[in-house]
């Protein structure tokens, strides 16, 4: 197979409202474009035609925030963000190149729809079936340099799934899915330099029997994304979430979370933690029943009306009952130096509690990093004997609440974290 990449030259400066297909048709006729060819267009000309060039007298920060669905990583002025389309790129695709001073270009609202509309118009004008790709330049996390990738695609396969076929040695391919649209987009960049005033290319010789697709087909689903957030962003993004999506928390995810918890600092080279994971079953029912009975007695002894007691217990049952997984963290205070005076002995106990708090925070962060929702509830702090009896734990262990966890619900956290003034929390001395 031979592939030819031809620049489409002679296009005027594109302005809002221009009919790109009408401007392209004479150029494509001159190049003798035919069915099966692929027209590649830069995002910039599509955005200009669709009015996605905006004034930015104070810089791009506000527009980046508006175009971002979530921040993946941040360092200084650079923001790596996920756009509403699902693309992860620098500054959510907000770009100042090849637009007038004081303006910025934004990605098209729906690049796949843009590609499809241009394809339909060219079919009507020229009587041929072209594939159409809209490109943008993206960086790569593990390599220097930019390449063109497809942000919009119509009339050709975005992905070619080779799983189940065999290589030339006869081995069955198990994971190979080729991003054909990205390969074509990258090739087009050879004739569409940023300073060359060539915003389009015709790629000839691309063939595949796979069905047509869209650029959205290439967006990796969250469940398969191993690099969804930078470590710093994950710490800031973790939220206490008390409702969960369908499914369970796999054993390997629990093990990874506990491994992370056990990296917390601890006094005197100890490892004073224990985590008891509870799936729905007898042990969990015993624990929740014992806690409910203890709370019922305590609340009633405080003179709380029966209906208020039952309402609080139902709320607790709803919280615990909806969680696919409960994890009860414990700490023990032995195994370190024995101090003769009461003041230092008390300080040492506080060190163990601080260590356990750090371990619980690591546990929550590790669950979040793996895509699971969680929250910490104080429950077992007030039911030490009942918790140990229900779970068969020795008296040396002190329970420190309960972590409820489960798959992330649709949409993640229900509301954004409220802003706060850092001056209230940070002082330099």
Task: Please specify the SSE layout and strand pairing.
Blueprint: E1 4-7, H1 20-30, E2 38-42, H2 43-49, E3 53-55, H3 61-67, E4 68-75, E5 78-83, E6 88-90, E7 103-105, H4 111-126, E8 131-140, E9 143-154, E10 160-161, E11 177-178, H5 180-188, E12 200-204, H6 231-237, H7 251-261, E13 273-278, H8 282-301, H9 306-321, E14 325-332, H10 342-369, E15 372-377, H11 384-391, E16 397-399, E17 402-407
Helix pairs in contact: 1-4, 7-10, 8-9, 8-11
Question: Would you write up a description of this structure?
Answer:
By secondary structure, the protein is an alpha+beta fold. The chain folds into 2 domains: 4-224, CofE-like (60s Ribosomal Protein L30, Chain: A), CATH 3.30.1330; 238-424, NADH Oxidase, CATH 3.40.109.10. Helix content is 33%, strand content 21%. It is built from 11 helices and 17 strands. It has helices at 20-30, 43-49, 61-67, 111-126, 180-188, 231-237, 251-261, 282-301, 306-321, 342-369, 384-391, and strands spanning 4-7, 38-42, 53-55, 68-75, 78-83, 88-90, 103-105, 131-140, 143-154, 160-161, 177-178, 200-204, 273-278, 325-332, 372-377, 397-399, 402-407. The strands form 5 sheets. It has a 5-stranded mixed beta sheet. Strand 4 (68-75) and strand 5 form a beta hairpin. Helix 1 (20-30) crosses helix 4 (111-126) and helix 8 runs antiparallel to helix 9. The longest helix is centred in the C-terminal third of the chain and has 28 residues, at 342-369. It is elongated, with a radius of gyration of 29 Å. It starts with a strand and ends in a 22-residue tail after the last strand. The model has no long low-confidence stretch (mean pLDDT 89).
